[in-house]
Automatic annotation (TrEMBL):
Gene3D superfamilies: P-loop containing nucleotide triphosphate hydrolases. This is Resistance protein. Residues 29-139 form the NB-ARC domain. InterPro entries: Disease_R_plants (IPR044974), NB-ARC (IPR002182), P-loop_NTPase (IPR027417). Coiled coil: none annotated. GO terms for biological process: defense response. It comes from Arachis hypogaea (Peanut). GO terms for molecular function: ADP binding. Transmembrane segments: none annotated. It holds the Pfam family NB-ARC.
Amino acid sequence: LAKALYNSICDRFECACFLLNVRKISDQEEGLVRLQQTLLSKLLGEWEIKVRSVEEGISMIKEKLGKKRALIVLDDVDKIEQLKALAGECDWFSYGTRIVITRDKYLLTAHKVEKIYKMKLLSDPESLELFCWNAFKMTRPKANYEDLSNQAIHYAQ
């Protein structure tokens, strides 16, 4: 859903960045620094940006993005440190910037996020169709995969 939202509105902003797998990348050595570097590079269109520390990245984000109206999606955030390093305070960004964060509600409330949208679960038929599009590139399960597909959607809810 976050990717679909991003794709449908990104052209309304001066710059846009979808940071995928924040949790996984930030767990790696220098992961937060790499995420900051990616964020800056994508939003500024400058591929030679080097960030040497999280603190330097925070300063660069504040300085370089403060005047840009940006769309930022932070996918799979699970620690407050990630949010503080990538989207610390509202005054880091220009008026009109939108930051979409996907993950647990407790993390968003701890970071004082203004608006929280709780996703509704898909119905079983909707879940099955989504699963099948990703697994089989069709709307229904392949023959002999009906039971396994139904088990997968019930497990994942």
